[in-house]
Amino acid sequence: xxxxxxxxxxxxxxxxxxxxxxxxxxxxxxxxxxxxxxxxxxxxxxxxxxxxxxxxxxxxxxxxxxxxxxxxxxxxxxxxxxxxxxxxxxxxxxxxxxxxxxxxxxxxxxxxxxxxxxxxxxxxxxxxxxxxxxxxxxxxxxxxxxxxxxxxxxxxxxxxxxxxxxxxxxxxxxxxxxxxxxxxxxxxxxxxxxxxxxxxxxxxxxxxxxxxxxxxxxxxxxxxxxxxxxxxxxxxxxxxxxxxxxxxxxxxxxxxxxxxxxxxxxxxxxxx
Length: 272
Ligand code: HPA
What we know:
By secondary structure, this protein is of the alpha/beta class. Helix content is 31%, strand content 25%. Helix 4 (163-176) crosses helix 7 (247-271).
């Protein structure tokens, strides 16, 4: 067994010892979106600092704990707070929790984030279904030797965001009367927000939203064979499209749209 598999064994053994058995869905809750975890029933909470081989997140607005339990009748393991590449973690560290979810037999990952809108028809507060991504982070979590027991050397990313899930979330949005945009998420490393020139470049490249997360986690989820559903909260217009950018606005916008966001995820989960 190689080192990564040994670490995963230690991590999952600990997590199982805390009462986590049958995980169906992994859930990653982005900046300001962690409140969904408070709706998980029979919740088992495990703070990251207790978990062997887990790093600790440093961003304000991120709680830093796993919440396990039932949401919309499904067994979910939610991350309240994620790890970012810009915090200085390696891509392997950033994506380690996704490997843990897969090792705990999750079949799907629901990933959420706060993002800047690039599409000129978007407005702050919009929710965007991610239908594809562009990895512009300058790195890839699968760099290095591949463990064939965990996944293939060259994963197919043709349908990184599961088509059947996208159709279901669109149907739920329509039924619930929630306006749902759809588009391509482009991952930058951060921690600076983009420059206006980078935003123009991203738009020309085909992106609808930009952010500093999600791409590595989705790559590893696909490597492990998880089906992925991704939703962005457009918290602001990207640089050059509004006066200035700040993290406070990101948090305030997620606060404003959290009811729709939670409804969308919960109602969708019911149908998956
Ligand atoms: N850029 C990058 N990441 C973000 C943004 C943005 O404009 N808004 C929220 N996260």
